[in-house]
Amino acid sequence: MAVEFVGIDPNTDRDHCPTVWVDAEAQEILFQGWKPHPDTQAECEASSPANGAVPDGEAIVRLPARMVPMIREACDVIGRAQLR
């Protein structure tokens, strides 16, 4: 697995730093973000089509909207990898 750093929250304080990476080989985007408040977690789970708890091995993370350009860039990296 070759993970490529895409970007970090531009407003980071370096202790709380949502981050985006790409694994182009696996065709995956990786996110580091904040854990949601328990009420938010419950709301996400209740509104899920699966209507249940988030399975072990999965997580809900929060990312600020200001990171949308990095998420788009990560999608572009995956798209370019698919063309190879």
What does the model show?
By secondary structure, the protein is α+β, with helices and mostly antiparallel strands. It has one domain. The chain is built from two helices and three strands; from the N terminus they run βββαα. The protein has a three-stranded antiparallel β-sheet, with helices on one face. The model has no long low-confidence stretch (mean pLDDT 91).
Low-pLDDT regions: none
**What is the N-to-C succession of helices and strands?**
EEEHH
Write down the domain tally.
1
- Helix count equals 2
Give the spatial strand order of the biggest sheet. Answer: 1-2-3
Average of the residue pLDDT scores = 91
Number of strands: 3
| Cα shape | globular
Distance between the termini: 17 Å
Q: Give the class from helix and strand content and strand pairing.
A: alpha+beta
Task: Work out the strand percent.
Answer: 15-25%
Q: Give the C-alpha Rg.
A: 14 Å
Helix content: 25-40%
Biggest sheet layout: 3 strands, antiparallel
Summed up, what is this model?
The chain is of the alpha+beta class.
Overview features:
2 helices, three-stranded antiparallel beta sheet, 3 strands, alpha+beta, 84 residues
Secondary structure: elements and pairs:
Elements: E1 3-8, E2 19-23, E3 28-32, H1 38-47, H2 68-83
Antiparallel strand pairs: 1-2, 2-3
